[in-house]
Amino acid sequence: MLEDLKEEVFQANLELPERGLIKYTWGNVSAFDKASQCFVIKPSGVGYAEMKASDMVVVDLDNHVVEGDLNPSSDTPTHAVLYKNFPEIGGIVHTHSTWATIWAQAGLDVPAMGTTHADTFFGSVPCARVLTQDEIDAGYEHETGNVIVETFRERGINPADVPGVLLHGHGPFTWGKDASSAVMNAVVLDEVCKMNYYTRQLNSYAEELPKRVLDKHYLRKHGKNAYYGQGK
Amino acid sequence: MLEDLKEEVFQANLELPERGLIKYTWGNVSAFDKASQCFVIKPSGVGYAEMKASDMVVVDLDNHVVEGDLNPSSDTPTHAVLYKNFPEIGGIVHTHSTWATIWAQAGLDVPAMGTTHADTFFGSVPCARVLTQDEIDAGYEHETGNVIVETFRERGINPADVPGVLLHGHGPFTWGKDASSAVMNAVVLDEVCKMNYYTRQLNSYAEELPKRVLDKHYLRKHGKNAYYGQGK
Amino acid sequence: MLEDLKEEVFQANLELPERGLIKYTWGNVSAFDKASQCFVIKPSGVGYAEMKASDMVVVDLDNHVVEGDLNPSSDTPTHAVLYKNFPEIGGIVHTHSTWATIWAQAGLDVPAMGTTHADTFFGSVPCARVLTQDEIDAGYEHETGNVIVETFRERGINPADVPGVLLHGHGPFTWGKDASSAVMNAVVLDEVCKMNYYTRQLNSYAEELPKRVLDKHYLRKHGKNAYYGQGK
Amino acid sequence: MLEDLKEEVFQANLELPERGLIKYTWGNVSAFDKASQCFVIKPSGVGYAEMKASDMVVVDLDNHVVEGDLNPSSDTPTHAVLYKNFPEIGGIVHTHSTWATIWAQAGLDVPAMGTTHADTFFGSVPCARVLTQDEIDAGYEHETGNVIVETFRERGINPADVPGVLLHGHGPFTWGKDASSAVMNAVVLDEVCKMNYYTRQLNSYAEELPKRVLDKHYLRKHGKNAYYGQGK
């Protein structure tokens, strides 16, 4: 089942090392199928060189393997929580990409310092809190998903406008309309983490991008008045 | 029309990812044809892998598409303003290259700290101000061009001597006698932004290159007494 | 003798430049054979382009060459001391990889700032002291091994839990169950040195990963309750 | 004439972009022939893609072109002064490699912070002063050579022990017994500039490598008691 989606998820996983987002098997991509309410995800700990499209695992929203011979990514329960709570998203990426992980380890939100950020993220990318011992005991990966959802709800952020999050002490999750756009958002997040780090080191008085420019750049690419690209 | 220039602009666009200046479609190159008073520019949001020379768009100085099936780059009006006001230039490049964007986000001019800078830029590369709300409303990309022109006029900088600018909060534009030299100037600008950042971090007392060395290096490569290369 | 192990050590040595851990011949990998109590190691100062599997040198735990026409790595005595004292390890890697060397030159232990660290190292990676003049005179490479062993004994660190060390002023050694996992640990150590450097620069108040998360991440990949990967 | 040396110099020039030391044509390599007292050097401003071994230019120690259709590198007079004054050297490299240039722009000597440095440079790499206006007028490239020689003489540094220098505000020159070892020394210098920068940023109290370790590492690779590598 879902052979096309498996191929898509497989290709998106291969993009992670190609674009320098991961080393070894430190990442995973999934994509959601609305019709079956299942998602396709990378198997756990399988090397990218030997991995095939048919190794992708089909999982339902309760984390049951529906099809596949291999164990799905150990982060599967986090993906499931996000698909359940953010119904507008079709693909999810987790990496330990260097710069996003640095901000995650520093425990800081990533402010919008420039238009590279504004073209993709409509405001700061939040850093979610560390899990408590009780949450870790209750199910680390599932509760990680809950803490992400809590972060967006409490701060009133629309996950469609800010398609990514940092997990304090861990690394980034990004999402998008499909697997490929979730990968692109992972690339952008890593790059703006790099740029924003150096901007603040270069000029500690550097200010966030004015709201008028944030709006202009985000809205010329997203929403009903967007005019970037070749239209529909 | 302008088939040779289309090929040249196409090749110069391909150089952007090859030289590590851009990710995805975050950049554009154009070149100007004096005879027709038109320029050739990359189409908007088209991936580099699928792009062909015949996809390049021919545009006049009033931003009308003269030939081409695709929308031109959303930054087209900025290019048009520069070709109108800086008649000595034949090619323009816009990127979000990492180091130039860092200085742009910091809102700082790039001082000449060494001969790598002096070989290409005859003094500091200026950082142009953020647009006002009125300017954004009047036409963001067109007014971006006007702010660049204003910056060079007000500061009395000759755009032939300093072939590039930073846009505060955004990124660099560079130019040159043709598309290929504009790309080279984009590479140099990014590299000197990197070097100059680290120079100041390493030694906060580091001073700008003495004027006598700036003159020597710039003038041994440019102008009527240049002796670098195989020239005539 | 040990033709399979020679091939394995040869391939693991080739991984060092491929993964960006070394330039020229600045590194070496060995692997241990329990049956013969010998180890196979890279020859000294031989370039990676011209090196063949048959050039690998077989050495016993007293540093005698058992088979091979070339001189073994000048660091051979350090490897021998580690195999003698850390009987659980099957492979050793030495490099001058950029980021691990930076921490070694700074003379600092590498704290666990994130889960990338916790997935591989169960706590800080220690930095071993500089050798005394007497130790250098007694046999620099042999005494280097002794100082590593002393560091783990005095601090009560299990080398199976923390498979690596920094040598103050020099660079890293890592180890693992075999040559290939020792290389992986060298990659991880370099990456966490990079991430942890920038984390502290970005936020000087950033704290080490809470023990509960360190435990969770290390133990979901290692030990009898591990559930990462495809199991046995 | 000197066809073998031309091939050697050509190959060494190609190594500069391959090893990430230069962009475009920002570097040059030469090698000296004792018999003819001439040296072979890269032509000025010729791109690496179109360059051939036969384009290399033969020049004597008074900067006269002895053979070749192209102009030699504009830095030729600097090379000539070094060959005249440092008779033990057989190859010279000039680049604007990023990290060595950063230290040159900062105007600082590069201290020996670790064994990566000590394996190649027997002490600090000096930063030579900026030329005066009179020196620039008298012949910039020739006087650059004189300032390098002055730096080594005044400080009592043997150019065979410390095969490189930084030019304040400009970049590095390195040398060696031949073109290929001069390139290797350029790679090492760039890497130690990078490592030493980050070492000091990470730990501002980090000290230089103790003399006993500097001696040990330098002398195990150089001089009559060297035991690194496969001997003679």
TrEMBL record, chains A, B, C, D:
Which superkingdom does the taxonomy of this entry point to?
Bacteria
Protein EC:
5.1.3.4
A GO molecular-function annotation: metal ion binding
Q: Which Gene3D superfamilies match?
A: Class II aldolase/adducin N-terminal domain
UniProt catalytic activity: L-ribulose 5-phosphate = D-xylulose 5-phosphate
According to its record, what are the GO cellular component terms?
cytosol
The pathway where this protein functions is: Carbohydrate degradation; L-arabinose degradation via L-ribulose; D-xylulose 5-phosphate from L-arabinose (bacterial route): step 3/3
Protein's UniProt keywords contain Metal-binding: yes
Q: What class of enzyme is it?
A: isomerase
Biological processes per GO annotation: arabinose catabolic process
Q: Is Metal-binding tagged as a keyword?
A: yes
Q: Which cofactor does it need?
A: Zn(2+)
Keywords of the record:
Arabinose catabolism, Carbohydrate metabolism, Isomerase, Metal-binding, Zinc
> Pfam families in the record, alphabetically?
Aldolase_II
Q: What residues does the Class II aldolase/adducin N-terminal domain cover?
A: 7-197
SMART domains to which the protein is assigned, alphabetical:
Aldolase_II
Function according to Swiss-Prot or TrEMBL? Involved in the degradation of L-arabinose. Catalyzes the interconversion of L-ribulose 5-phosphate (LRu5P) and D-xylulose 5-phosphate (D-Xu5P) via a retroaldol/aldol mechanism (carbon-carbon bond cleavage analogous to a class II aldolase reaction).
In the record, the note on similarity to other proteins reads: Belongs to the aldolase class II family. AraD/FucA subfamily.
Q: How is this protein named in the record? A: L-ribulose-5-phosphate 4-epimerase
